[in-house]
Specification:
Blueprint lengths: L8 E4 H6 L1 H11 L3 E5 L2 E6 L2 H28 L6 H12 L7
Parallel strand pairs: 1-2
Antiparallel strand pairs: 2-3
């Protein structure tokens, strides 16, 4: 489960529904998410599109870094092959002629 930061805005869903225009303005100005509660329990997080897009970009970067780390670990363990060998196999597989020097 993801831990919520106490400093984030916490409001009831009914309060958000009644004052949605003000909340939307706040989301756009601050870029900070708002936690909405139902019956006193946190149930929904609302954020503006720019903040959501930033979060998606960060997730993409983290996944890319994880992939690079796994590749590096494989190389350190002697797995994998030299780039020349890989590209030669790729050329043969797809019928790509070798580059002329």
């Amino acid at each position: 489960m993801i831990a919520l930061h106490v400093s984030e805005e916490v409001h009831s869903l009914s309060e958000f529904t009644q004052n949605s225009a003000e909340f939307i303005e706040q989301l756009e100005e601050t870029g900070q998410p708002v936690i909405l509660t139902v019956n006193g329990q946190a149930k929904i997080i609302v954020q503006d599109v720019a903040a959501y897009q930033r979060m998606l970009e960060l997730v993409d970067r983290m996944e890319m870094l994880e992939g690079l780390r796994e590749s590096l670990d494989s190389m350190k363990q002697g797995k994998g092959k030299p780039a020349r060998e890989f590209f030669e196999e790729l050329r043969k597989k797809h019928g790509i002629p070798p580059r002329e020097k």
